[in-house]
Amino acid sequence: MDIVCLDLEGVLVPEIWIAFSQASGIPELKRTTRDEPDYNKLMNWRLGILKEHGLGLKEIQETIAKIDPMPGAKEFLDELRSLTQVIIISDTFTQFAKPLMQKLGWPTIFCNTLEVADNGEITGFRMRIENSKYTTVKALQSIGYETIASGDSYNDLGMIKASKAGFLFKSTDKIKQDNPDLPAFETYDELLAAIKANLG
Known about the structure:
By secondary structure, the protein is of the alpha/beta class. It has helices at about 15-25, 40-55, 55-65, 75-85, 95-105, 130-140, 155-160, 175-180, 190-200; strands spanning about 1-5, 85-95, 110-115, 120-125, 145-150, 165-170, 185. It is about 45% helix and about 20% strand. A 7-stranded mixed beta sheet has the order 4-3-2-1-5-6-7, sandwiched between helices. A hairpin with a 5-residue loop joins strand 3 (about 110-115) and strand 4. Helix 3 (about 55-65) runs parallel beside helix 5 and helix 4 packs parallel to helix 9 (about 190-200).
């Protein structure tokens, strides 16, 4: 049994924090896991900036409501889900992901949870499990699945390299140069063809 594991942001939808950085006019929030491999460090830094500017969950959710999946993402996902099981494994949060999952046709997502105060301030975050993408892929393998994985950032490399087949998608030149052994694609058609070739 195969199961495909996909990253969310940068693969199926635009980066939420980049969109919020543009909407809020705070350029520092453009930093993502493409720039900072240490996710805990990145999130704590983001929460500090939100606090400094008095911004909370409501403001971020207002931006997310305006984000649409990348062109062709839903069609790609629909076709892929007609062929095999698919799980989105993301370091985003349930409070961010729900409207995006609706626009993608409610695929399964494994992600994390924000801690939010009554006044809407984001006070912290709870990671589902340490090194969640790699750990989830290994757990799926332990119950009899063969995994095929794709993502764009540093935090996707663990699951990509641990899988039967793994691909970079719309990644950075730096990540591609550092991982010349990983096939890298720019279009959904290329990625779908590569996944299909490894199914079964």
